Amino acid sequence: MAEHETVTKADVDDKITTHKDDVSAHHAKTTAGEINLADLAEKDHASLTNITAAQHHARYTDAEVLLVAAVLVHAARHQNGGADEISIAGLSGLLADDQHVLDAEVLAVAAALVHAARHQNGGADEISVAGLSGLLADDQHVLDAEAVAAANAAGLALASGKNIKLISALTTNDTWSGLSAVLTAGEVLALGNAVYLKGADSRAWKALATATTTMP
Fold first, then answer.
1. What is the pLDDT of residue 61?
2. Structural domain count of the chain
């Protein structure tokens, strides 16, 4: 074998096979000229790495370098409008900076806290006192129609010294029943007594008809 002859893979395989079959040659010393270790170790670069020697030492272009740098420094991709935008709604923990609260959100919270109008008549969440228990703080106005209906249904007995307010005048064919005027009693009277207005004192007195009694 020549000193600088290139050894092919077939040559190496042949030597390995020969060495394996020839046991006596396993420990036989050979000279440097017989086997070139550098030649034996030489393998095609592409067969080892799938990259040619030219590719392995190729220089990157500026565009390729900038592309790699953009991938490494890519905060803009996660900001508003970025290709891989991040929403803080999907993150846990506390943000490092104080957050700006939108005016609309502040107004909405304030409206929710001070919202009496929502529960008043015509409000979006109107409350009916019929659905509340306890006593209202203010005296309540009773409708006239309700008071009259309650009095008629109960047949109320009036206490002494209490007046009944009557209409001031009658029109044609109108009638009154019961008391027809507000009078001051001149003596003890019972409800249902027939009375007359005594001119001397302008008080009501019992009207008792006898053969000898006359009306003043």
1. 81
2. 2
Question: Could you tell me if residue 215 is inside a domain?
Answer: yes
pLDDT at 2: 47
Q: What pLDDT, on the 0 to 100 scale, is given for residue 1?
A: 45
Would 46 be classed as within a structural domain?
yes
Q: Identify the CA nearest to 182 among candidates 196, 163, 201, 195.
A: 163
| Predicted pLDDT at 151 | 76
Structural domain contains residue 170: yes
Which one, of 42, 49, 31, lies nearest residue 7 by Cα? 42
Dist CA 122 CA 127 (whole Å):
9
pTM of the model: 0.25
Query: Which two three-digit tokens encode residue 127?
Result: 């409350």
- Can you give the C-alpha Rg of the chain in angstroms? 60
Q: Give 52-98 as a DSSP string.
A: -HHHHTPPPPHHHHHHHHHHHS-HHHHSTT-TT---GGG--S--SSP
User: 25: domain range?
Assistant: 9-56
Long-range own/partner contacts, residues 31-40 (CB < 8 A, 24 or more apart): 33/1, 33/3, 34/1, 36/3, 36/7, 39/5, 39/6, 39/7, 40/7, 40/12
Buried b (16+ CB within 10 A) or exposed e, 70-103: eeeeeeeeeeeeeeeeeeeeeeeeeeeeeeeeee
Would you tell me how many other CB atoms lie within 10 Å of the CB of residue 206?
Answer: 14
- Asked if 25 contacts 17 with a C-beta cutoff of 8 angstroms, the reply is no
pLDDT in tens, 40-73: 555 555 666 666 666 666 677 888 888 887 777 8
